[in-house]
Amino acid sequence: ELSAALQHLIERNASQAEECSQLKARLQEETANVVRARKAAFAQFFASEPQDGFKDCEVGDWSTGPCSKPCADSEGHPGQQVMTRSVVTKPDTSTLPGRLSAACPATEQTVQCNDIPCPVDCEMTEWSEWAGCSRQCGAGEQYRTRTPRRIGLHGGRSLGGA
Question: What's the order of all strands across the beta sheet hosting 79-84?
Fold first, then answer.
């Protein structure tokens, strides 16, 4: 059961990585188109201003903090993780091109993490009372029983005789 869940996570991760890569390429192309259009519009309407004044905000890569939980709780709620990045270059808003440059995006965001279910150990009921003896006299047998109250899930301990 654990290896099937792990395989599912690996496949989901690969699928999401591919989607993310495609989205990143699309966004980079759209950004380049916006920059070209902005420069053309600026040149047309503000011919007296220097054309190299655009300095869009640049931010660094995301850094991830620790996840608040090692796994999703019994209600399926995953952990939370704060991601941060720093501003590398800020636009100079004292110039017209600087005021028309792209502002800085968010430098902090919270995302879900560790959304796999936590292991659940098997839990047994208490032992029953001893059953009556199988013989009235000499070498009889008695027994008692108990049943699973909860079975082991997601890599938790399974049923045992203890």
Answer: 63-64, 79-84, 108-113
Tell me the H-state helices in the chain: 2-45, 96-100
Indicate whether this model's pTM tops 0.85: no
Whole-angstrom Cα distance, residue 162 to residue 155? 19
pLDDT tens digits in sequence order for the chain, 162 residues long: 567 777 787 888 888 888 988 998 898 899 888 878 887 887 777 776 665 667 889 999 999 999 999 998 878 899 999 999 999 999 888 888 888 888 899 999 999 998 888 888 888 999 999 988 888 888 888 899 998 888 888 878 887 644
